Amino acid sequence: MPTLDMGSLSRAAERTGQRPYIVAIGGTTRPNSSTEKALKVALSAAQTIGAETCLLTGSDLELPMYAPERPERVPAALRLVDEVRRADGIILASPGYHGSVSGLVKNAIDYVEDLSKDALPYFAGRPVGIIATGAGWQGAVQTLIALRGIVHALRGWPTPLGIAINTAELVFDMEGRCISAKIGSQLEVLAREVVTFAHKERSLASASDEYPRK
Ligand SMILES: Cc1cc2nc3c(=O)[nH]c(=O)nc-3n(C[C@H](O)[C@H](O)[C@H](O)COP(=O)(O)O)c2cc1C
């Protein structure tokens, strides 16, 4: 993997005076799951290159089943929708449950439907990094493909690199540090892809006013 030029991206953030806002969504109900650890490592890399970040995980995602015909929303659901609306870039991470995206993560993503009438609907105009974990390669890779399909359905721009993590191997330590050089480097590259694209979209959008953001 190529090394990151963290310096030049940070300088780009300073030049535009606007730090891209990157929202990470995913994990499991269990605090400190490997899926959550992967998101935290990616967000930390995004911060290093000048992004402002927000993590929605665990209890933030324990929402009632999404029901379009019932417009009442719990505060956590309103927050999720608002954070996606504000986001310049998104990172999604799901464990592979029975061969696909977990119910927790998919239900949270279903709430993005509430952005369908926005000027910038769903994930439109935003880079979306995707990460899938599994207790084996088959589940992780299958879930990664499912996530990529979801991003396309929501009109987002999946980053070139998507990451499949086999948690049967030793990847993170108890403190959440990534102890796999390969996965660590991939998480940095994914963060850079999201932040770089977000920067470009932000400058284009502010030049044209085509995509108003909050
Ligand atoms: C209900 C359930 C279903 C699962 N199904 C699969 C599966 O189909 N394939 C797989 O590789 N792992 C499966 N797993 C394992 C998780 O994907 C694995 O634990 C994943 O790495 C998440 O780790 P984490 O909980 O530390 O984030 C399943 C786990 C649970 C709880």
Notes on the protein architecture:
This protein has 214 residues and is α/β, with parallel strands linked by helices. It has one domain: Flavodoxin domain (Rossmann fold, 3-Layer(aba) Sandwich). It has 6 helices and 7 strands; from the N terminus they run αβαβαββαβαββα. Strands 1, 2, 3, 4, 5, 6 and 7 form a 7-stranded mixed β-sheet that branches. Helix 1 runs parallel beside helix 6 (181-208) and helix 2 crosses helix 6 (181-208). The model has no long low-confidence stretch (mean pLDDT 91). The site of flavin mononucleotide has 17 residues, from helix 2, strand 3, strand 5 and helix 5.
Task: Write the SSE topology.
Layout: H1 6-16, E1 21-26, H2 34-48, E2 52-56, H3 75-86, E3 89-97, E4 100-101, H4 103-110, E5 127-134, H5 137-153, E6 157-158, E7 163-166, H6 181-208
Parallel strand pairs: 1-2, 1-3, 3-5, 5-6, 5-7
Antiparallel strand pairs: 3-4
Helix pairs in contact: 1-6, 2-6
This protein binds flavin mononucleotide (FMN).
Flavin mononucleotide is lined by residues 28, 30, 33-35, 95-99, 133-136, 139-140, 167.
In total, the number of domains comes to: 1
Topology, number of strands:
7
CATH architecture: 3-Layer(aba) Sandwich
Mean pLDDT: 91
What small molecules are bound in this structure? flavin mononucleotide
* Helical run tally: 6
**Major sheet summary line:** 7 strands, mixed
CATH class: Alpha Beta
The helix-strand sequence is HEHEHEEHEHEEH
Distance separating the two termini: 35 Å
Task: Give the structure's gist in a few sentences.
Helices cover 43% and strands 17% of the residues. It has helices at 6-16, 34-48, 75-86, 103-110, 137-153, 181-208, and strands at residues 21-26, 52-56, 89-97, 100-101, 127-134, 157-158, 163-166.
